[in-house]
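Q: Structure for this?
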Amino acid sequence: VKAPAFSYARPHTLEEVFDLLDEHGEDVRILAGGQSLLATLNLRLSAPALLVDITSLDFGGIRHTENRLVIGALTTHREVEHSALVRQYAPLLAAAMPHVAHVAIRNRGTIGGSLALADPSAEWPACAVALDAHIIVQSRQGQRGIAAREFFVGLYETALKPGELIVGVEFDAAAPGDRSFFDELARRHGDYAAVGLASHARNVAGHGLTELRLVFFGAGVAPVMLPDLVANRVNSDINDLSKKLFDLVDQTLVPPGDLHFSSAAKLHLAKVLAGRAIDQLIKVQE
Amino acid sequence: MTSSKFPNAGGILIKLSVNGEAISRWVQPRTHLVDFLREDLGLTGSRVACEHGVCGACTVQVDGKIVRGCLTLAVQMEEADVWTIEGLSDAGALRPLQDAFHTCNAAQCGYCTTGMLLTANDLLRTPGASCTRQAIRSHISGNLCRCTGYQSIVDAIEKVATSAGGTAA
């Protein structure tokens, strides 16, 4: 399995990237870390005429400013995994990163690439939705931020328009009372998950639980967020909450079955993860 | 190969360092790093197997980090510092691991061994990394051994991790 022939360009400015996108349109694929793109080329699932390598652009780095954590699109999964800023201000991401494929892949794969691909079984899209992140995209016309919950619109389908490029992602920095939970069930560590769960709870300590975001992946064509069970209700009874949550999973998820897991098995696994999440997020505090 | 649709598909000149030696070569954009190493440079220690990032047989080290040779293009390696099993072995960097693999019978058919060695070396030289059996398993989870000789591979890595002065380079 070898990739088909294509041309290659490595521009050093955004202007050059936009020129190439304008000139070649549908025939272009953006190359960042390439950890999904090159696999699809090797398997000849895709045959672009031109790869535009954007890794010479300056969209890396992790910054914390005014209660926001901003991660550049070209930041690798491994850099996020090892970042002290991420551990402090977005612990959900730190917990998720060890599950993203394997070390050798995390060393090259990028956050922007994962978000742009929007694989329904991938960790990044679910984490972005769970943390209510904003995806910052750039075009010749300027920048805009897209809420993660509006970004993933379908199977491998995003709200990106032609001529737009992801340049970074913005997260609200986690507050001291916040808690996160991440877990996924896979046949081998690092493989795509059968089902996974990214969740974030606000104000678990202090004023009482005010928000509980539970986002499943591998359970639909895009990340699936459950309706918030606790929205602004303080200290719900834990057993009551678990039961309501399992009912909600049953009502909300219709996971697509695959070669290894039927839809019913995935639904069961989703409830296993939901139970673990409640244990970790809330019971620990009591 | 060259046509108006693929203006530079026939070749791009890259300059890089391989095993400490400066190299410059014309490569096709479609050529993977591992194929470039094996076919253009004759460095056949890095293996080609699944060619879509699952098996880890093609693991090489780029700028100090392990990567998949089949999910990296040679043209992306401009100015990179690439090390393969040949260079790391000659430099003696893998000697404790190679000895332990030998002693523990951790190489059966040998096809996955070079990738295993580079991945194990990556774990052992990560400062502060846990080297419990579970941590070792997790670190090599991206390297498949189709002889299924994982127990002895983990034994070998654990042996180096726990032996006095056995830190790999």
